[in-house]
Amino acid sequence: MEAAHWLVLLMTLVPSSVPQPKDDFQEELVIRPLHSGDIYASFQFRTLWDTDFMRENKVSHYRLFPKSLGQVISKFSVRELHISFTQGYWRTMQWGQPFIPSPPGADFLRYATLPREIVCTENLTPWKKLLPCGSKAGLAVLLKSEKLFHSSFHSQAVHIRSVCQDWQCKTTSWELRQTVNSVFDLHNSGQAKREWSLFKMFSRTLTEACPLASSSKLYIDITDNPQGEQFELSPATSLLSQAVVLGDRRTFSVYDLTQETTFGSVRSLNLLIRWKSNEGEMLRPLLHAERYVAGYGLQTGEIHTLMYNNHPYRSFPVLLLDSVPWYLRLYIHTLSVTSKGKDNKPSYIHYEPSKDRVKPHLLEMLIQLPPNSVTEVTVQFERALLKWTEYPPDPNHGFYVGSSVISSLVPSTVAMDTNSTRERPLFSSFFPCKEESSYFVRIYTEPLLVNLPTPDFSMPYNVICLTCTVVAVGYGSLYNLLTRSFQIEEPNPGLAKRIANVIRKMRGVPPL
Length: 512
Known about the structure:
- The protein is 17% helix and 35% strand.
- It has a ten-stranded mixed sheet with strand order 5-4-3-6-7-2-1-9-12-11, with helices on one face.
- The chain has helices spanning 2-17, 67-76, 92-95, 121-129, 145-148, 198-202, 459-483, 495-506, and strands at 23-33, 39-49, 81-87, 105-108, 112-114, 153-164, 172-184, 195-197, 215-221, 231-234, 240-245, 248-256, 272-275, 287-294, 300-309, 316-324, 328-339, 342-343, 348-352, 361-369, 373-383, 399-401, 405-411, 438-444, 448-450.
- The longest helix has 25 residues, at 459-483.
- With 512 residues, the protein is an alpha+beta fold.
- It has two domains: 23-275, no CATH class; 287-414 and 432-450, Immunoglobulin-like (Sandwich), CATH 2.60.40.740.
- One of its GO terms (biological process) is attachment of GPI anchor to protein.
- Residues 1-19 form the signal peptide.
C-alpha cells in the first residue's frame, strides 16, 4: 500500500519536471487598399523556437517547428536561409514598397536566381504543409491556389534565421517566417464595382484562428483613410494600432481572431472594403530603380540601371549587386556611373569575371546617390554564340537575366524603437534598424530579356527532308532496276486474223 502511495506521488511530480515547450507561433494578414483600387494582401506566419541546432546534436521533439527544416539546419549547420518564388513584377511607383521584397522567379540567399521560374500549385502545397495548422485552420484557409495565381503579383517565401532574445544578444532563438504577398487587380478580377471582400479575394471567409497560434490578427491599413472618406470597412472595429513601417508611421484597424466577438453571431468574418472616392496621392518611395537593355543587332549591347533618390535634401549610399550570365561578356572598362550629368565615382567596386559555362559575372558597387537625382549605371557587353545543344526549346523567346539587388539605409523622419520588436506587428520587424534616422530597404529591378545569336533550327529539318527525298527516289529507282525480272511476251493475234482463220477452217484451208 505504501509502495502504491509513493508511485502515485512520483507520477504527480514527473510532469512538473518536464520543461515547457519553448516555441511560439503567430500569424498575421495585412491588407492595404491601394489608390488604384487594387488590394495588397500580405500573409506572415512566424514560428519561434528557443533551441540550438548547432550545439544539440540531436533534436528529437518537434511541436511547431517543421521537422523537415529542422533536420536540414542541424545536418548542414545552416545559419540563415532565404528562399522565395515570385510570379510577376512589383510595381513600386504604383503600389509603394512591399513589406518583404523578392525578385521575379526563384531566389536563394547565396546567391542564385532563376528569373523565369514558374510558380504553381506544386510550390504552394508543400509550403502550406510547413505550417503548424496546415491549411485547415487560421489565416492559411484563405490561401487558395486558384485565386492567388490569378492575381497580378504573387510571391511566397521561407526565411530562416537566428534572432536575439535580449538586447545584448546573449541567447538566440530560431525564427521561421513564411510569407505570401499578393496584389489583386481590379480589372483582372472582373470586378464591376470598386469593392473588395475576403470572399471575393480568396473565395473563403475566416471562421477561426489556428488553435496553436498565440496571436492571430488581421490588419487593415487605414493611414490614408482616417475619417473614412476614401473607403468603408464592414464590419467596423474600434481596435487600432500604430507601427513604423519602412520609415513611415502607419495606422491599422485590427481584428483579433482569437476573440470570439470578432466573428459575430454567424461565426464567420467576411471583411468588406467599399471605395467611396478616388482622390488621394500615394507617398512616393524615396528609393526606386529600373533597368533595361539598349543597343541594336545581335553582337553588342548595353545594360542601363537607373536609381532614383526622391529625397528632397538628403543623400545616402546604396549597395548595387549585379549577377550577369556568362554568355553576356561584360566590358568592364566601359562601366560608367553618372548623376545629374556628372561622373559619380563609386567608393567601392568589386568585380569577379565570369567563366564560360561555370560561373556568371559578379559586380558589386557602393554608390552615393545625391538628393532628388537619378543615377545611371551603364556597362557594355558582347553576346556569346552558344552551342546548338545549349539553346532552350524556344530560343527565339530570348534569355532572362536576373534582377539587380539594391540595398540601402534610406533616411527617415520617424524613429524606430528596436527594443520592442516582439510587441510590434510582424510585418514591421523583419528588417530592424538601429539608426533612428534611417531604415533598411532592399529592392529588386525587373529582369532583363536578351536575344542571343540564334541559328535557324529549321535548316536541319529541311536538310533531312531533302536528303530523304533524294535517297528515296534514287535508291528506289536503282533497287527497282536491279530486282525486276523481264519476260518476252508474244503479241496476241488481231480480230481480222482470227476471223480469217475461222473462214479458212470452214473452207478446209490451213489457218494463217
